[in-house]
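Quick look at the format.
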Amino acid sequence: MGFFDTWNVSGITTDSAKSSEPFYLLAQAIDDSGQDDIPIELLLKTAQVMLKKEKSFELFFYKSIKAEKTDAIQFLVALSSYIMGKDGMFWDWQTVRHHSQGLYGSMTESPNEFVQ
């Protein structure tokens, strides 16, 4: 990963991580971890956003469609936040950013291992 790519990815992951808490709450709601106070409409919208970004991730990763890069990175951020909620961790945007940057690095540096 070159300097400018790293800088670009860092900016995307930072901005996205700061607003990734809804994906964390979605995971907790699915696990029924006391998130009953979140309106179902908000949970559904969050799930729809995640699924849309997953499609972008697939297009970027499997078909190398560069136009999908930003949404693909945002999917990795959403996934990181979601996993934190599933694992019962406390939400922290810096941890989300760190995990998503690690996922991106794994994806670009060793794509065969990333798939496994």
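Next, a different chain entirely:
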Amino acid sequence: MKKTNYLIYATLIIIIFALLYSIFSKNNNLTKAKSLINDVNKELNMLNDSLKKSQKELISIQKKIEIYDNELNLLKNERELMEFEEKIKNTKNKIELESLKIKIKETEENIEHLKKISKKFQL
């Protein structure tokens, strides 16, 4: 009887140690998992901040491109205007002269429009 009681107690102690080991090992794995999740979360936050910064930079670059494009169009129209004015000086034909005057007027309107756009960018 003592041997059976001793075997029962030994078996219970082994089962209890096995359960305790299982609980502690699972707790350790859970701690590792939480740590990994926290690390991933930190990295995601850093990436999110980096993406937001990149987006702001892209918007800034896009705005600069629009400004430079407008300035380029303005310079092209001013050059056309000077070319038309030079052609007027050398033109003897009235029909061609009238056509050049119309082109000059359209170009001047374009220049004014581009200048208005340029002022909007300066604000």
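The longest helix spans residues 2-90.

See the schema section for token definitions.
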